[in-house]
Specification:
By secondary structure, this protein is mainly β. It has a single domain (46-208), classed as Beta Barrel (Porin), CATH 2.40.160.20. The chain is built from 1 helix and 8 strands. A hairpin with a 5-residue loop joins strand 4 (111-125) and strand 5.
């Protein structure tokens, strides 16, 4: 009897652990989740180029000087990458398609033609406040009313390497001044491949969107 009374007294004297004295795990506040910042889409512009210019052939390899002609070009391109690259070379890669609706040779003989370059690789350097620069290379074909050069073929492969600047940029519009070194030849499809290599200067208009 005495032992039972002592045990009851110890139980009554023991502290009662409640959620008031010791926080219960179920009542602990849960830290709010941090909001996930949305990923901004990369702005990749497209661009129309419309330009016209004159060209003069030069003595180089199997090409002969003295050939003069005018060209008119229309191209559309789209930036495919975000801006990358080291220092002054930083920029974006563009794939463009260029049509040449007018090819008009006026010396030494009058010859007309049209061309298409489905592969135009352009590098848009990081734009400056008042201007921006680009470099490009292209491959395509051309068809003319007479063989160019003489005694070859009316169909030729074309290629060019060049660079240009966009000036007086006002919103999406700008003036474009460009230079390219242009090559056309039959690609060794005939017994000889004389070809034509020319310096070409172009001026035109650009619209970016």
């Amino acid at each position: 009897m005495l032992l039972a009374m002592l045990m009851m007294a110890q139980v009554a004297a023991a502290p009662v652990v409640t959620c008031v004295e010791v926080p219960c795990a179920m009542n602990e506040p849960v830290a709010p989740e941090q909001p996930v910042e949305p990923v901004e889409p990369v702005a990749r512009s497209s661009e129309w180029h419309v330009s016209a210019g004159v060209a003069r052939s030069v003595n180089l390899f199997q090409s002969t000087a003295g050939r003069s002609y005018a060209v008119q070009t229309v191209s559309w391109g789209r930036e495919l990458t975000r801006e990358w690259g080291p220092g002054p070379l930083r920029g974006r890669f563009v794939w463009a398609v260029e049509a040449m609706p007018i090819f008009a040779q006026f010396s030494p003989a009058s010859i007309y033609g049209i061309g298409l370059a489905p592969v135009v690789w352009r590098w848009n350097f990081r734009p400056q406040p008042r201007w921006s620069a680009f470099g490009e290379m292209a491959m395509g074909g051309m068809w003319s009313t007479e063989p160019i050069p003489e005694n070859t073929s009316r169909g030729n492969f074309t290629a060019h390497w060049g660079a240009g600047v966009r000036l007086r940029q006002r919103g999406p519009h700008s003036v474009v001044v460009a230079y390219r070194f242009q090559h056309l030849s039959n690609g060794n499809q005939l017994g000889s491949n004389p070809g034509v290599n020319s310096h070409v200067v172009l001026i035109g208009w650009s619209h970016r969107s």
